[in-house]
Amino acid sequence: MSEYFVNGKKHRLKDDDYITEGGEGKIYKVGDLVFKIYEDPSKMIPSAKINELKVLDNENIVRPMDLIYDHKQKIVGFTMKFISSTLPLVKLFSNDFWNNNNVTPETIKSLVEEMIKITEFIHSKNILIVDYNEMNELVDINDYTKPYYIDVNSFQTQNFPAPVIMPNVRDYHAKSFNKMTDWFSFAILSCQLFIGIHPFKGSHPSYKKGDIISRMKSNVSIFGKDIKLPPTVRDFSNIPQNYMDWFVKEFEEGKRIPPPIIGGLLNVIQVKVKVKQSTNNFEITFLQEYSEDVVKHNEYLDMRCVVTRKHIYISKTDYKISTPDIDILYEPKSTKHIFVKIDHSKETLMYMDTSGNVLDALIQCTEKMVINNTLYLRNRGNILEMKVDYINGFKFFVKNTWTTSPNSTQLFEGISVRSIVGKFYLNILEPTPGNLSNCFVIAIPELDKVRVLDAKYQNHVCILTGIKNNIYIKSILRFNKDFSKYESRTIETNSDLDIVNFVVLNNGIVVSIDAEGIVEVYSNKLGDPKINSIKDPDIDSSMKLTKFNNSNDVMFFKGNKLYSLKMKK
Questions:
Q1: What domains appear along the chain, each with residue ranges and CATH number?
Q2: Angle between helices 105-124 and 179-195 (to 10 degrees)
């Protein structure tokens, strides 16, 4: 516990107050404020610059407020207002996030419009954003249209130049920073929001793989000729017509002009990609087609459940839904089931019966996950294992509780991650039929100070993506049977948001597809070094892997179709 002073008032910071790290400082939540404490006070933003940033009096801008002093009356940080219920802007680049949360091109249009307004406000105060990158903006989690600008201390003011800019948003044609370089960086972000790819990524025959800086200097973007795009790129019809014209001017012609007023979407017919029924290495079998794109698939006993954007299909029954961010719970001894979701505006668990009645379960929570038909919720500093009474009107009871870090814990598919003052931990929950779940807490020093973007755990394997020291990384972890040992394989990725796309079969075989479409097949057993890596031109990263619960068969969904996938012998 450390003591600090703000306006003469003492504050004690505890480990549970910790949120994350950024800009060479640790971030803590204290009441409705954020405390940013610099590890090296000499790198602290000058108090004179804080005064210059006071003109950014806007609810969407999280600026430095009051100075923080240590017990020796030395300045060590500053306070900011705390914004709840947000996520990093980079999450909205992902197709999975779009599908799971009903994000639409209209959602992105509204978000981009708000970003323009805030940028114009900042410029009106003679201040530049400069490091206008995807991690310096948060988005409200309720409808994804309200942005918040953070890391404001890195803005350029009249007397304080900007200290740094990430290479992927830099204008290499400019000799100094100005309003147009901000708009160039904004163009890159808005392109990624609309179609999910940096405008200078993909591949070009005249440039090395991943060499986006050379292409940025030469104005060779995805809107020119000879570019090969990954299949995960969203259709260009998501881009408003006048934004398409602007992107061509910015990225292909090297012109620098402010963005246009948002207009209508391009009148382009989207072409559904067909999946080849067999490849050089795999046998692909078509299983079923649905009315909308598939979001997720699971099975319970003999019932197949497929969730699309507007429907849930359980066996042969079709239920209409308002959002695909829903999990299904089944009564173990019958076919009775309910759907659960979180109302983020109220931070409570909601459930819907099969008649479509939406009811409040009166349980406070901000995140949920279901593992093997067991519901887990995060209620601030606790993870709750829930029991459902299906007989007396679907009542929910807390069956078990684990204490966790209230501000730095995140739930993902099958796993919880948290950070204790920069130290990284995994919480692996394993349901036990008829008993309380087991919870294994595992420290992973290799991932200290990583900001996790996505993660998944299944049958002693965890794969996660994140950012460490402004570099995107992907980590593959394997655990032994009792989780007393693990091994990790961490790689730097050339992707703003690499995918977590894998399944672990009942026989322990792991099948994964990475952002480049490379299939890896290996064992989940600790110490087994064999990895079979397969590059097949007909396999790509848009094929979302899933499996049959009671077999060793791999499945995948792409678009609105479900397939099985087998390796040829």
A1: 2-81 (3.30.200), 86-252 (1.10.510.10), 282-567 (2.130.10.10)
A2: 170
pLDDT of 266 higher than 70:
no
What is the distance between the alpha carbons of residues 62 and 274, in angstroms, rounded to a whole number?
46
Find all residues with CB under 8 Å of 398, minimum gap 6, and list them.
363, 384, 385, 386, 387
3-state secondary structure 86-137: EEEHHHHHCHHHHHHHCCCHHHHHHHHHHHHHHHHHHHHCCCECCCCCCCCE
Name the residue with tokens 């990430």.
Answer: 166
Handedness of CA 127, 130, 135, 140 (dihedral sign): positive
The answer to whether the beta carbons of residues 486 and 479 sit under 8 Å apart is yes
Distance CA 530, CA 523 (A): 8
The residue type of 59 is: E
Using one digit for the tens of pLDDT, what is the confidence trace for 55-111?
Answer: 999 999 999 999 999 999 999 999 999 998 999 999 999 999 999 898 999 999 999
C-alpha closest to that of 135 among 402, 506, 470, 537: 470
Q: What is the DSSP letter of 44?
A: S
Residue type, 9: K
Helix (H) or strand (E) holding 194: helix 179-195
Closest CA to 392 of 458, 435, 336, 447: 336
| 567: enclosing H helix or E strand | strand 561-567
Question: What is the DSSP annotation of 334-364?
Answer: SS-EEEEEEETTTTEEEEE-TT--EEEEEEE
Q: Residue 230 pLDDT > 90, yes or no?
A: no
Task: Give the model confidence (pLDDT) of 508-549 as tens digits.
Answer: 999 999 988 899 999 999 999 999 999 988 898 899 999 877
**Which amino acid is it at 474?**
K
Would the CA dihedral through 207, 210, 214, 217 be positive or negative?
positive
DSSP 369: E
Query: Which DSSP string do the residues of 425-489 spell out, in sequence order?
Result: EEEEEE--TTSPPEEEEEE-GGGTT-EEEEEEEETTEEEEEEEETTEEEEEEEEE-TTSS-EEEE
**Backbone phi, psi, residue 67, to 5°:** -75, 145
CA distance to 249, 434, 522, per residue, from 528 (Å): 52, 33, 8
Q: What is the pLDDT of residue 392?
A: 74
Structure token pair of residue 379 = 């209620």
pTM of the full structure:
0.90
More confident residue, 127 or 273: 127
pLDDT of residue 216: 97
Strand order in the sheet with 303-308: 294-300, 303-308, 311-314, 317-320
Cβ neighbors of 221 (< 8 A, separation 6 or more) are 199, 200, 215, 227, 247, 251, 252
Long-range contact pairs involving 362-368 (C-beta distance under 8 Å, separation at least 24): 362/396, 363/396, 363/398, 366/85, 366/342, 367/342, 367/410, 367/411, 368/327, 368/340, 368/341, 368/342, 368/411
Integer Cα distance of 308 and 330 in angstroms: 19
Judge whether 427 and 420 are in contact, CB under 8 Å. no
